[in-house]
Amino acid sequence: MTVIDQSKMDGGASYVNAGYLAPSHLVPLAAPGVMKQGLKWMFNPKSPLYIKPRFDSEFLKWSLAFNRSCNAKHVERSIPVMKSIAVLGRDLYDQIKQEEGFKFQLEKKGLFMLCKTEEALHHEDALVQVAMKEGLVARTISSDEVRKMMPNANLDIVGAAYFECDHHTTPGEFMSELKTHLIQEGVNIRQEERVLDMEVDGGKITSVKTDISVLTADEYVLAAGSWSTALSRKLGLKILLQAGKGYRVETKTETGITYPSILAEAKVAITPMNGFTRFAGTMEIAGINHAINGQRVDAITESVTRYFPKVQVTEAEKANAACGLRPVSPDGMPYIGKSKKCNNLTVATGHAMMGWSLGPSTGKLVQEIIDEEKPSIDMSLFHPDRKF
Ligand SMILES: Cc1cc2nc3c(=O)[nH]c(=O)nc-3n(C[C@H](O)[C@H](O)[C@H](O)COP(=O)(O)OP(=O)(O)OC[C@H]3O[C@@H](n4cnc5c(N)ncnc54)[C@H](O)[C@@H]3O)c2cc1C
């Protein structure tokens, strides 16, 4: 097996994410009201969701498809499917840790949605009911109970939802162990090598051309994150995706935050990782670029101080902010499967805000597709040829 990656495999979305393995995130990004909210936030440089208007046909097609997907029927259909793939992913991390001897941080403490307003608490409570209906362990809890669980965090909230079903990790640790493991298992990892083109004959890829060589294989997997659209075009596929930029800031200073916590109104994710606390947030749909917008970094750290008044992120810590691009499909569901246009290619991309949770389950589904086994879960909503 060969993995080709144009990067040094040490940064980007899979390294900067909040490390949540979150079956609680049942509602896809494309939900009623999200487009409207995005339009409202367009002119606020500190908003958590920013959609930059552009005269670009890919962006326009994606926006129309996203808008069409923001409906209640889509959310209702997606919830049980998201639950199945997220629970499978969460449990596979556990299995990998136990069976392969990985040592990465994997904690099973759950996740708080911290609310400063009754309105947000009401909204989160409704999501708790949805999660419970799906068989997930979740409850709404008082601010006093959260304070008891995090006695040194000095919280300023009215209450929280507590999704005990969620786990968390330190992504950099897992990525490094995974890479070492794959090399030990004989996988040929070709980093800093870029796929430029693919030769197709009779509905099959016959070779892949990179900036260094030409490679052949029986089966191919397209898992190029936000760059997957451009590569899919070379095969005549129409994988609609936009890059959703997110930032992370970290501190090694003691914060007292001992549970993963999302600031519900501010949409900032906080994770107590191994040796540091990570703050992650924003979804900037503004094309493929890695420019760091200082105002959005400030917005993340200012929100943290509003909920945790004792936590102050320093200028040096802010200057170390990094970003990653989430591959966002128009309906918030991943693309996993074979396109009718190419029968030796499996697509595995478009995981948006859930790619860390869903990595192992996606890997398992890809293996099942290639080996022509019965898939572990229903994959009809993930079809790469689906219309929006
Ligand atoms: C701030 C932030 C917080 C997040 N928090 C969470 C979380 O808590 N939980 C969760 O489940 N998800 C989270 N996510 C989402 C998750 O991180 C992403 O969905 C996931 O990492 C995407 O993985 P990927 O492998 O598809 O893409 P990437 O990690 O972007 O990998 C794609 C790779 O393809 C390579 N590539 C692209 N084009 C080519 C080419 N032509 N040739 C060779 N290589 C190429 C790139 O170099 C890149 O390494 C978060 C994301 C961000 C940004």
Shape field: globular
Structural class: alpha+beta
Computed CA radius of gyration, to the nearest angstrom = 20 Å
**What small ligands are held by the chains?**
flavin-adenine dinucleotide
Please describe the biggest sheet, giving its number of strands, its sense, and whether it closes into a barrel: 9 strands, mixed
The total of helices stands at 11
Extended strand count: 20
Low-confidence stretches: none
Describe, in plain words, how this protein is organized in 3D:
The protein is an alpha+beta fold and 388 residues long. The protein has helices at 13-16, 34-41, 57-69, 72-100, 118-133, 143-149, 171-184, 228-233, 294-307, 315-319, 355-370; strands spanning 2-5, 20-21, 49-51, 106-107, 111-115, 138-142, 159-163, 167-169, 188-191, 195-201, 204-210, 214-215, 220-222, 242-251, 261-263, 268-273, 276-285, 322-328, 335-338, 345-349. Strands 3, 5, 6, 7, 14, 15, 16, 17 and 18 form a 9-stranded mixed beta sheet that branches. A 3-stranded antiparallel beta sheet has the order 2-8-4. The protein has a 3-stranded antiparallel beta sheet with strand order 10-11-12, with no helix packed on it. The structure holds flavin-adenine dinucleotide.
What keyword list fits this structure?
three-stranded antiparallel beta sheet, 11 helices, binds flavin-adenine dinucleotide, 388 residues, 34% helix, alpha+beta, nine-stranded mixed beta sheet
